[in-house]
Each structure stands twice: as C-alpha cells, then as structure tokens.
Amino acid sequence: MATIEELQLELEQLREENKKLKEDNKRLIDGSEQLLGRNMMLSEKLDIYYDVRRRVEWLKDLVQRHRELMAFADLRDDEELLAIIEARIEGDNIPIPPEFGLREVAELVGSTQQRIVELYKRKTIYHTVDKYLDYLRLLRALRLLKDKPAYNIEAIAQDAGFNSVRTMHRKIIDTLGMTPGQFRDITNPPEQ
C-alpha cells in the first residue's frame, strides 16, 4: 500500500503531465488554426487560378473565332450578321461585363464598328449596341433572380454584367416597375 507522501508525489506528477498535455493541446490547436488559414488561402488562390485559366481559354477561343470570321466579314447581309451576333452572344451565353460594348461585338463577329452601328440603327428595335447589351444583361439578371433565390443581389448584378447593383436596380425598376427583391418574391413565392 502506498503512503500519503507517495500518493502526493504521484498526484504532483500527474498534475505536471496534465499541464504539459494542456500546453501541447494549445500548441496543436494554434497549429491547426494556422494550417486551416493557410489551406483557405491556398484554396482561394486555386479558385482564382482556375478562373483565370477559364477566361484565358475563352479569350483564345474568341481570338480564333475572330480570325475565322474576319475572312468573311463583309460578305454577309444585314439579317445574317444580326443572326450571327445574336447566336454568338446569346447562344454561346458569353459573359457580358460592363466594359463589353461595340468594339467587342464587332470583334466577336469579325465586322467593323461602323457597320455594326449602322446595322443596329437601321435594323433593330434597340437602335444601339449598348441598348441591346443592356437588354441582355437585364434578362440575365431576371433569370438569375428567378432561378437562384439564394444568390445575393450583388452577385446577381455582377454575374449579369452590370457595373453596379444600383444600375441593375434602376434598370429593373424602369422596365418592370418593381425592385429586384419584389420580382424575386413574385417569381419565388414562399412554400406553404
């Protein structure tokens, strides 16, 4: 049988071991937090890398199509050129960032900017390329509001190609007479 002194000595050793284990545990937790932060940072960099690669591939494809289309740029009649523009922009569902405009449309279909200006002025209800692109951005925003109820308004504005939430908000109000939130509520009623 152990004496009181031996038990006290053993208790003191257990306390020391417990203290060391707590310190080791704290170091492990701190190290885990650092690894988690590093992994999150690497994950974000990887997402950015893949996004850049996707955009580079899209641009390479765009340049190749541009080269192919330039050979036939002035051989198309107006209706054919309009159909090609609509097919390339709407059919391929290409991104329409805020800076995408007349020059990019002309390059996309291998035509001159002047021809595109005249074409939209004479043959469309939009009268300008910018109005046409704004209309497409508006349609994309409305589709996202309806199909992605969990998306926040800022993400929808960015994905649709608006340069700000305010611009998208104003366009939707001007067109529908309601806010983006009201449109979302109408198209996604709460389940009963």
Architecture overview:
With 192 residues, the protein is mainly alpha-helical. It contains 8 helices and no strands. It has helices spanning 4-70, 78-91, 102-109, 113-123, 129-147, 153-160, 165-176, 180-187. α3 packs across α4 and α5 (129-147) packs antiparallel against α6. The longest helix has 67 residues, at 4-70. The radius of gyration is 30 Å and the shape is elongated.
Features:
77% helix, mainly alpha, 192 residues
Question: What order do the helices and strands come in, and which of them pair?
Answer:
Blueprint: H1 4-70, H2 78-91, H3 102-109, H4 113-123, H5 129-147, H6 153-160, H7 165-176, H8 180-187
Helix pairs in contact: 3-4, 5-6
Structural class: mainly alpha
Strand residue percentage: under 5%
What is the radius of gyration? 30 Å
N-end to C-end Cα span: 72 Å
Averaging pLDDT over every residue, what do you get?
Answer: 86
Secondary structure: helix percent: over 70%
Give the SSE string.
HHHHHHHH
Number of helices: 8
Q: What is the strand tally?
A: 0
Broad shape: elongated
Report the uncertain regions.
none
